[in-house]
Amino acid sequence: MAEKEYVLGNKAKDLYQYTRQVTKPGADEKVDVRDVATVMRKMATAATLEEMRATLTATAERLEKKRKRPYFPKSESFGMIKDLRDAARAILRGVFAANETRFNDHPEDRLREIKAVIDECGLMLQLVELAHDLGYTDVKRMGTWTKRILDVKYMCLAWLKKDTERAKAILASRQRTDCDTMVKMVREILAAEGRQQMRI
Fold first, then answer.
1. Distances, alpha carbon 187 to alpha carbons 39, 58, 180, 197, in Å
2. Which of 90, 151, 173, 184 has the most CB atoms less than 10 A away?
3. How far is CA 52 from CA 13, 17, 22, 33, 61, in A?
């Protein structure tokens, strides 16, 4: 594996690990029925109006002490979380598949794999932006995530450009070889027919 492709493989791996880390779901923001019943019982047994106010204030403060950092709700486990993780896994798989493809034997296959990784990066960028719009991630985390995706995407774009030129040269060489082989076959057929004609 070449140096740049090795670096790219590590960046794809880091992107996958980061995606798994930041998409860990938190509890959905729901008030549990038992908690509501407990508060209602405390209020019902309160001897004074001050006790009721204290109970309501304590409950409100507890509700406000939710997570400060945005997070993905559990309800997105099979939605956006799955989509983001699948995209990161596809990027990782695609980079390694492209690396493992013997370029001289199958240049089109490698180019196809690289293009698929670039497409997945584009999809992932859209999903990260949507996650931010929905309030599942903050600006700082979105920036870090986007940079990791773009690192992989730009390296793949450079790889695609370089390998496209190499593929053209390989395919042109193959065409010349095929053309030379066909010319040789036609000459042999014509020579054989000429010999056949002379015998008659």
1. 97, 97, 11, 15
2. 90
3. 54, 48, 40, 19, 14
The rounded distance, in Å, linking the Cα atoms of 167 and 164 is 5
pLDDT tens track for 55-99:
888 877 777 766 567 889 988 999 999 999 999 999 999 999 999
Cα torsion through 133, 137, 140, 142, rounded to 10: -70
Q: Is the pTM of this model over 0.85?
A: no
Q: What angle do CA 22, 26, 27 make, to 5 degrees?
A: 170
How many CB atoms lie under 10 A from the CB of residue 15?
A: 24
Structure tokens at 163: 């390998």
Tokens for 54, please give them. Answer: 């204290």
